[in-house]
Design brief:
By secondary structure, this protein is α/β, with parallel strands linked by helices. It folds into two domains: about 200 residues, Glycogen Phosphorylase B (Rossmann fold, 3-Layer(aba) Sandwich), CATH 3.40.50; about 170 residues, Glycogen Phosphorylase B (Rossmann fold, 3-Layer(aba) Sandwich). It has 14 helices and 13 strands. Strands 3-2-1-4-5-6-7 form a seven-stranded parallel sheet, sandwiched between helices. The chain has a six-stranded parallel sheet with strand order 10-9-8-11-12-13, with helices on both faces. The two termini are about 30 Å apart.
């Protein structure tokens, strides 16, 4: 069984990818369970429609929820941690119940403290979603697999799409989808670009997403009438489907899965040459890469895509080819191979103990090992 853990508060890129993987594994009849934060109703709502998965909700302090998990584990249980908090909880489960845990790291920040490095070193397997993240993980001194984010068939509401097309008839729509929690997604750059294009009456900007700084960015651009702030929307593809350009000026990015969505829907991309973005976008093949903060370069690329239909067609065609490599079913198969690899390692060491000690002694040794790990963790804290 695969025990997923995602203790995020909201529903953003990492939660979407957790959901996509679980859905793909469910179709392949993989037995699964997920631990989520009790108050994350949106993630729960999306999970409840998936077959063959048990949902366990926990709340702080997470430590005391360990005892609710008793009886859940078998010798084949693998813990899959999908974000930072889940890594800590996965380690705790590993200490108490002995199940191996794997980590998928989705942001390109470096591990900046000894505790985080320790947790990653103790994992059975660490997976990076891009080459950039893999390089940042060199500090843990172990083999890192690269398994990118995936994409499924995108559904959007055709009625909403038609309504928006009619509302913005004859407009060139430049858009972005990203949470507005900090400055890392480049929303200030988007506002500056919109300001430079404010005299172009046929250009409008869609900024899709909510977050802690939503009100701040909206106030910063209140003098502009060419920006539409939608806030958080459950289906951003209604808007993405009608965009002419997807502008993604991030300053830091693990991979940029919303770029995959844009390519899938045939929207040409201009994105920063940072983090894992170059894993997806090859400059002048399926999009444009620009240097971070370089507004002049962004303006140049926007003008090219507005004026040059041949380049647009080339990017759209090559983008369709690119996203084939990110099909969520292919990504799920890669994870299944990793799960099997870890199970084979567990089976090898269990068989070794039984062969040399017999079933009874092997059981005693295994239980002693689990108990010693628990005491080690308590003392170590």
């Amino acid at each position: 069984m695969i025990l997923h853990i995602n203790l995020a508060k909201g529903f953003r890129g990492g939660e979407k990818q957790t959901l996509l993987l679980i859905k793909a594994l469910s179709k392949k009849k993989i037995r699964q369970c997920i631990i989520i934060r009790r108050k994350n109703s949106l993630l729960k709502k999306n999970l409840e429609i998936i077959e063959n998965i048990k949902i366990i909700e926990i709340s702080k302090p997470f430590f005391f929820s360990l005892f609710k998990l008793k009886g859940l584990f078998t010798k084949n249980t693998i813990i899959h941690c999908h974000e930072a908090k889940s890594v800590q909880f996965g380690f705790l489960i590993n200490m108490f119940y002995g199940s191996g845990y794997i980590i998928t790291k989705r942001n390109d920040t470096k591990l900046n403290n000894n505790f985080s490095i320790f947790l990653y070193k103790k994992a059975s397997k660490v997976i990076a979603i891009s080459e950039s993240i893999k390089k940042n993980l060199i500090i843990i001194n172990k083999m890192i697999d690269v398994v990118p984010d995936g994409i499924e068939d995108i559904q959007f509401n055709n009625d909403v799409s038609i309504f928006l097309k009619n509302k913005y008839f004859n407009k060139k729509i430049i858009g972005n989808i990203a949470a507005m929690d900090n400055d890392s997604k480049g929303h200030d750059i988007l506002i500056n670009v919109a300001n430079l294009l404010k005299t172009e009456k046929n250009v409008v900007f869609f900024l899709i997403g909510g977050g802690k700084k939503f009100s701040f960015f909206k106030k910063e651009s209140e003098f502009l009438d060419n920006i539409e702030f939608t806030g958080f929307v459950e289906n951003p593809y209604d808007y993405l489907s009608i965009m002419n350009i997807f502008l993604f000026p991030s300053l830091s990015e693990g991979l940029g899965s919303s770029i995959l969505d844009a390519l899938y829907l045939g929207v040409p991309v201009i994105a920063s040459n940072v983090g894992g973005i170059p894993d997806i976008i090859q400059d002048n093949y399926n999009g444009f890469l620009v240097n971070p903060h370089n507004i002049d370069e962004i303006m140049e690329k926007i003008n090219i895509l507005i004026q040059n239909e041949e380049i647009r067609k080339k990017f759209i065609k090559n983008g369709f080819e690119t996203v084939k490599n990110y099909d969520i079913n292919l990504i799920a198969d890669k994870y299944i191979n990793i799960y099997k690899e870890i199970n084979n390692e567990i089976f090898y060491w269990t068989s070794y103990l039984v062969r040399w000690c017999g079933n009874g002694y092997a059981s005693i040794i295994t239980n002693y090992w689990k108990l010693s790990r628990c005491w080690y963790y308590i003392v170590w804290l």
